[in-house]
Amino acid sequence: MRHDGRRSDEMRAISMERAVSRHAEGSCLVKFGDTHVLCTASLEERVPPWLRGGGEGWVTAEYGMLPRATKERMRREASAGKQSGRTQEIQRLIGRSLRAVVDRAALGERQISVDCDVIQADGGTRTAAITGAWVALSDCMTYMMSAGMITANPLTDHVAAISCGIVDGAPVLDLDYIEDSSAHTDANFVMTGSGGIVEVQGTAEGAPFSRDELTALLDLASGGISRLVDLQKLTVA
Asked: Which helix (H) or strand (E) is 88 found in, with range?
């Protein structure tokens, strides 16, 4: 048993609440245990300059943590005048993950910006953000169809993400902060509803991990993401 009593293949309590923002075309408040992320999708009738005239749209993401998302107050990155490397890496990951399941030609020359703001952090903020961002994006697509802007949903599949790691010599699913900070290996998996792998991020914090351990983590992630996709389907139904 893990420090919080979970089995190795057991996720924290997961919830997704859609339509939580009055103004955004799509929104979702996602909770992975004590990690809470607000995701909003905003529609713009424009695309970046390099895409103009090409007939395709764009999906991008921004990510940030509120000052008291963690135990001690963090300075807002805006007040420092620049984003950290971690923030840039995570928001690019979110954007890549969402674009992997979007038919950009069906979207037309429009941009959807998905903002993921971490209200409270306890490990797995990027995986929660990706999972909730898909729900916000789905709601935005539904809005566009209801407004007659598009005739078919540009979303081609679900996408979700989960963390895994090797803690005390055993592979476990959905690490919280305590586990993440002590893991011998930690990894993030982004996968589609049909089982396709979008991205794998894996790091050995000490001794290298084996191919068999990687396979064990992938198996855990596949099961967890399948359950996340089922919850996404229930949320947007």
From this structure: helix 85-99
- Domain housing 221: 14-236
Is residue 47 included in any domain, yes or no? yes
Provide the number of structural domains found in the chain. 1
Q: Which residues are annotated as a binding site for phosphate?
A: 86, 124-126
Distance CA 183, CA 94 (A): 23
The continuous run of DSSP H or E covering 100 comes out as none
CA dist 111 and 130 (Å) reads 18
pLDDT in tens, 35-73: 999 999 999 999 999 999 999 999 999 999 999 999 999
CATH code (residue 125):
3.30.230.70
Answer yes or no: is 6 within a domain.
Answer: no
Residues of the binding site:
86, 124-126
pTM score of the predicted model:
0.96
